[in-house]
TrEMBL record:
Recorded family membership: Belongs to the cytochrome P450 family.
Entry keyword annotation includes Oxidoreductase: yes
One BP annotation, GO: sterol metabolic process
Protein name, UniProt field: Cytochrome P450
PROSITE patterns, alphabetized: CYTOCHROME_P450
Any one Gene Ontology molecular-function term assigned to this protein's record: iron ion binding
Family matches, as InterPro entries: Cyt_P450, Cyt_P450_CS, Cyt_P450_E_grp-IV, Cyt_P450_sf
Classification lineage: Bacteria, Bacillati, Actinomycetota, Actinomycetes, Mycobacteriales
Keywords carried by this UniProt record: Heme, Iron, Metal-binding, Monooxygenase, Oxidoreductase
Signal peptide location: none
List of residues binding heme: C398
Presence of the UniProt keyword Iron in the record: yes
Needed co-factor(s): heme
Organism: Rhodococcus pyridinivorans
SUPFAM superfamilies named among the record's database cross-references: Cytochrome P450
Length: 459
């Protein structure tokens, strides 16, 4: 049954937001988790760009299509807050993270943090990443049905210990495992149905995990403050904005915990999606491998990675097909409007890049893997400024976008040099959308070593 979100003020030109009421308490959460795209399509077909639904006892608007997404993400009249929006989902575990800050505070932190993501810093990051990736890939044992996603998740988390942390010199392997588990508990807690610290629940494990992470980073802070090294942790301790502002100890701990989360699952699902499609499209795998072999090195520089044009097309297409962050959360801090619809203060907004990426209006045959659509002669992503928005838009656009690009390409480059793999062309990844999407079967691929290939000897 159609309901409206709220009656617009008398004499206003605004329309009421139409939508549906869901199961009391839970709302439409289960429908979203089952198949977010189907739910969004239903809303688009019935109501259009802006509609309402409920989730976890809160009123949400579903913001669909590039025009509506652009309006909310650009947030020209500052009516939508990030902190209030995201806090509802991840606040207790990732508070203080850049994405959860607003207005002047956000600007101050972003100005400092962007110094950590300059091209020259990324060049050093790539240099440190290459041997670390190689060492971790040495442990892979190829087989039929190799669980690529599961292995990649371990790889990227181990890589984060090196690249983000600069190692953990005082910690035993067992202690590191506790920290990794604490991190995973924080991520999983965000989607807990029970949202109170009841013993045995995801929520409680997440709160305990947050404490473990805080203690861990606090322990290493003095060492990272005392000496500047190239890892992100040490960099955050030493950078300052052009105006000379720096982060406090507490702020560094909050940012590190958030950055781990922002970087980890997003990059992992991107690489795993690339492995899937490259496994299903051998001509693209061969094309990417030929470019990787042509580089003649397993330890590419930033500029080398930029030269991997086909890999770039594949990465963009995979970010379109499976958006690592399918929806972005916001909350209206005062009465406002979106595309002529009245949105009262307090309403949560779910802005959906994932839906835009599958709209046939912008992407011909949207379900088809077709990396060439990003090539210069086609540039389907140019049809609308927000047609391709896996990294969001506006002042909160992903700060780690280029970092993610080099990490993903550096890993897939080494995979292409070492292995070849096959995935059944009919395979459809059973994506779990409980939090960020991931293949619940661990994504099986038939993985083989390429060691017999004479070209491999060259690198
Ligand atoms: C493929 C990988 C990635 C994807 C798809 C991705 C996506 C996103 C998106 C959509 C946002 C905007 C959220 C919003 O508007 O509410 C965001 C924000 C952010 N991301 Fe990423 N991200 C990725 C990797 C990374 C990495 C590797 C890092 C850091 C090393 C990072 C750091 C951040 C930060 C700091 C923000 C907050 C920016 C702000 O609020 O000003 N991300 N990311």
């Amino acid at each position: 049954m159609t309901r409206i979100l709220a009656a617009p003020p008398a004499h206003s030109h605004l329309r009421p937001v139409p939508g549906r009421s869901g199961i009391p308490g839970i709302g439409h959460v289960l429908e979203y988790i089952r198949d977010p795209l189907a739910m969004m399509q239903k809303h688009w077909d019935r109501y259009g760009e802006v509609s309402c639904f409920s989730a976890a006892g809160r009123r949400w608007i579903s913001v669909l299509g590039p025009d509506a997404c652009q309006e909310v993400l650009q947030n020209k009249d500052r009516a939508f807050a990030n902190g209030d929006g995201w806090s509802a989902l991840i606040g207790p575990f990732f508070h203080g993270g850049l994405m959860l800050l607003d207005s002047e505070e956000h600007l101050r932190h972003r100005r400092i943090m962007q110094q950590a993501f300059t091209r020259s810093r990324l060049e050093k990051t790539v240099g440190a990443m290459n041997p670390s990736i190689a060492q971790k890939l040495d442990r892979w044992v190829p087989s039929d049905g190799f669980r690529a996603y599961t292995a990649l998740k371990t790889l990227t988390l181990d890589l984060a210990t090196d690249i983000f942390m600069g190692g953990a010199e005082d910690s035993t392997p067992a202690e590191i495992e506790v920290v990794k588990k604490a991190f995973i508990d924080c991520v999983q807690a965000a989607t807990s149905i029970v949202r109170y610290p009841v013993p045995g629940t995801r929520w409680k494990r997440g709160l305990d995990g947050r404490r473990v992470l805080e203690n861990f980073f606090r322990h290493y802070l003095p060492a990272r403050r005392s000496r500047e090294t190239d890892d992100l942790f040490s960099v955050l301790c030493h950078i300052e904005s052009e105006a000379g502002q720096r982060f406090s100890d507490d702020e560094i701990v909050d940012h590190m915990i958030f950055l781990l989360m922002a970087a980890h699952d997003t990059s992992t699902i991107t690489i795993s999606t690339m492995m899937q499609y490259l496994g299903q499209h051998p001509q693209w795998q061969d094309r990417c491998r030929a470019e990787s072999l042509a580089l003649g090195t397993a330890a590419p520089s930033h500029a080398d990675l930029d030269a991997l044009g086909s890999l770039d097309l594949v990465m963009k297409e995979c970010l379109r097909l499976v958006s690592p962050v399918p929806v972005l959360a916001r909350r209206a801090v005062r009465d406002t409007e979106v595309r002529g619809y009245f949105v009262p203060a307090g309403t949560y907004a779910s802005v959906a890049p994932h839906f835009t990426h599958h709209m046939a209006e912008y992407w011909p045959e949207p379900e088809r893997f077709d990396p060439e659509r990003f090539a210069e002669h086609r540039r389907e992503d140019k049809v609308h400024r927000y047609a391709w928005e896996p990294f969001g838009g506006g002042v909160h656009k992903c700060l780690g976008m280029h970092f993610a690009g080099v990490e993903v390409k550096a890993i897939v480059h080494q995979l292409l040099l070492r292995f070849e793999w096959h995935v059944d062309p009919g395979y459809v990844a059973p994506l779990d959308f409980t939090s960020l999407p991931f293949p619940s079967d661990g994504q099986p691929v038939d993985l083989r070593l390429r060691s017999t290939d004479p070209d491999r000897q060259a690198v």
